[in-house]
Each structure stands twice: as C-alpha cells, then as structure tokens.
C-alpha cells in the first residue's frame, strides 16, 4: 500500500534529532514500522532549512521536505496562511508518478494540508491530532498557549476526515463532543520501544534516598508543582525532573525558576533536582534509577512516559487522565490518583515507597503489560488494518 504521512511542521532541528522529539518521533517510528511491513511510505514535512536536501531516505521510507513558507523554524500559528499552498504542492506531487492510496495527517496543520490536497480525489484521509485545542484549553486554562484559530480549524477538520485516530479514551470522548460519529473514531495508542526500554541495563547514579522521577518536559502543563507540593507528605525522598530547553541553561528557564520557588515555599528545596534535557537513548537509565515514576500533567493525550517507565519495570503513580488512565492499571502496574488531589498524591507516593513487595509486583506486571499491549508492532498493525478499511470504503464497486 502507498501511504502518505503529512506532518506539515518541520522535523526537530539537527542538534536535537537524537533527543526525544515527541510526536515527530512517533511519526518516524510509524513510518519505519509500516515500511518494514512492505508498504511504500512517504513522510511530508515543511522545509525550514535551505541547507537540507529536498528528500531523504530513512529506515526504509522517504522524507519529502515541502518548500512552502519561511525558510526558518516558525510558530504553528504562522503556518495557517500557508496551508492552501501546502495543499496545492501536495496535490501536484501526487498527480505525478507516485499517488498515495491513503493519506494520514498528523497534528492539525498537517491534517488541514492533507485534507486540502485530497478534497477533489477519492483518496481517503485518516487524522491523528496528537492533542486537541479544546481539551487543552479546558485543562490548562490561562496556561493554554495555542493560536486562536486552532480550535475552530480542528472542528472543521473533523468534518472532512474519513477516520480519526485517538490515542486515549478521553480523546475519543472529546472527538465525539466535537461532532464525529463514534464509528469514525478508533483508538490506536502510541507504542514503546521494548528493545530500548527494558528492566535490564545501567541505572543513573543516585544517593540513598528513595527516588521519584518525573519526565516528559518542563512547562506549566506538566503539573510538576503538584509533585513538589506533595513532597511535604512523602518524607525524605528525592524528586528528579527531566526536561528543559535543548542547549540552554535551566538558570534562564522561566518554568525552572518557578518550580524552584514553589519548592522553597513548600520547604522541600533540598529534595528537588532539575537535570535538564536528557537524550532519548539515555532515558532508560534514568527510569531504572527510580523507585517510582510520577506523571501528573493536567492534560495527557498519550501515555508515552508511563509506557516507557513500565517497560523498564518501574511502577507509575499518575493522574487518572488521558493516556495515563488508559496505560496504568490501578493497583496492578501502579496507582492512579484524581487529577489535582495533591494530598492523596503525596500519601500514595509515601505508602508505595514504603512497600517494597508491592512495588516489585507492580514493576513485573508493568513490564508484561508494555510488552504485550503497547509495542510499535501492534500500533503499526492496527494502523494497517485501519488503512485497508478506509481504502476499501472509497474504492468504486466492481462492475
């Protein structure tokens, strides 16, 4: 099958390609898995650096860089006026020697460009939003920083896609509230690299105190301040927070300064350690060094961090929201807490740190769950079946 994956955003800059690149890494892994299954896969992203080649061959698939918009990295909102041009470029590209049988849009900008390109064809379109502006706004409130046109454009996009891919049960609910029929939404969770994230291997150095690890980024939406305030109820434990600006210093990072102020006010400044950004292939060592991994974001579309921790055999304590609620099985692979309940969060962390046998059992169950239900092979297989279904729907009936 010929598959076109449209991101529209540029990929991560060269200096951070080996670091965890979030959703771009998700798209790259899906492309590689589909190519490994014998499909012809092409990924389309915007060219933001004139020194980059227009095409590249990576892991069996082809990346095509679209020369539309400014030749620099730019904010998402600035790309909206360029969507029609992106769509026209794709239309022209797909009327040549290579035409996709199915197009899969990623992010809302990628989906808009893909929908514009196929609107006068019979090519079906599948869409993964990765996050939804309406849901982010509801959970983050004044910390929501998305462009104003995002929410109405996402709503319009739901009207033209053949199928939407949700990454959690909460996202299914949000998409149906936006008007999509339930039959037009399918849950395909993100996968985890079970060859990289394993219980076996080196662990990052630590002291004798119990260690709680929080990973995934450094911005107000990750809820690290809740963990810091909960430490007052935990006792003598170390909270390690990874994430931050690539190549930058945490001294000049606004969220890092804010978290340190919260720690000072809470009387736990000596228990907090901000380590900055960690390369993706070094994260397993950090997970293995922890007694618990805590996930307390106000909004979590996918459960990537819990899955990585679980694959490393580490129990997860997290807020029962989004992908965290789907991936963590309460009292089996970790514990779930109502979002924003700092008192229960602190008590749960303290009790679980004191229960070695319980953590051991949770860790073993976590590895089994990650390896059985959340491999990239399963993700690719689910997408493959979805593509076959939407293509068969669009094909004209035989005479």
From TrEMBL:
Residues in Glycosyltransferase subfamily 4-like N-terminal domain copies: 22-195
Top-level taxon of the source organism: Bacteria
One matching Pfam family: Glycos_transf_1
SUPFAM superfamilies, sorted: UDP-Glycosyltransferase/glycogen phosphorylase
Signal sequence coordinates: none
Top EC class of this enzyme: transferase
Span of domain Glycosyl transferase family: 209-359
EC number(s) stated in the UniProt entry for this protein: 2.4.-.-
GO molecular function term, any single one: glycosyltransferase activity
Keywords associated with the record: Glycosyltransferase, Transferase
PANTHER family: SULFOQUINOVOSYL TRANSFERASE SQD2
Entry protein name: Glycosyltransferase
Organism: Plantactinospora sonchi
């Amino acid at each position: 099958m010929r598959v076109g994956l449209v991101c529209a955003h540029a990929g991560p800059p060269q200096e951070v390609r080996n670091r965890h690149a979030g959703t771009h890494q998700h798209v790259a892994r899906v492309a590689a898995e589909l190519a490994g299954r014998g499909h012809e896969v092409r990924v389309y992203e915007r060219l933001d650096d004139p020194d980059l080649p227009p095409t590249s061959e990576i892991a069996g698939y082809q990346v095509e860089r679209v020369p539309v918009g400014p030749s620099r990295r730019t904010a998402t909102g600035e790309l909206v006026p360029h969507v029609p041009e992106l769509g026209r470029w794709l239309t022209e590209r797909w009327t040549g020697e290579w035409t996709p049988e199915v197009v899969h849009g990623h992010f809302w900008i990628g989906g808009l460009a893909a929908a514009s390109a196929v609107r006068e064809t019979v090519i079906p379109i599948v869409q993964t939003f990765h996050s939804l502006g309406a849901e982010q706004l509801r959970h983050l409130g004044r910390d929501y920083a998305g462009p104003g046109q995002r929410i109405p454009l996402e709503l319009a996009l739901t009207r033209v896609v053949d199928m939407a891919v949700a990454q959690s049960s909460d996202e299914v609910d949000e998409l149906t509230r936006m008007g999509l029929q339930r039959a037009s939404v399918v849950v395909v969770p993100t996968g985890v690299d079970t060859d990289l994230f394993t219980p076996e291997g080196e662990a990052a150095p630590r002291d004798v105190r119990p260690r709680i690890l929080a990973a995934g980024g450094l911005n107000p939406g990750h809820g690290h301040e809740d963990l810091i305030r909960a430490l007052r109820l935990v006792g003598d434990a170390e909270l390690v927070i990874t994430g931050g600006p690539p190549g930058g210093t945490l001294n000049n990072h606004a969220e890092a300064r804010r978290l340190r102020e919260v720690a000072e006010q809470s009387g736990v400044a000596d228990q907090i350690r901000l380590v900055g950004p960690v390369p993706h292939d070094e994260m397993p060592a950090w997970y293995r060094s922890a007694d618990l991994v805590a996930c307390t974001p106000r909004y979590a579309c996918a459960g990537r961090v819990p899955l990585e921790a679980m694959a490393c055999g580490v129990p997860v304590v997290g807020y029962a929201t989004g992908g965290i609620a789907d991936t963590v099985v309460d009292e089996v692979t970790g514990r779930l807490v109502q979002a924003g309940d700092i008192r229960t969060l602190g008590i749960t962390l303290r009790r679980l740190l004191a229960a070695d046998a319980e953590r051991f059992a949770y860790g073993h169950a976590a590895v089994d769950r990650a390896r059985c239900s959340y491999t990239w092979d399963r993700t690719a297989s689910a997408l493959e079946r979805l593509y076959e279904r939407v293509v068969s729907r669009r094909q004209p009936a035989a005479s």
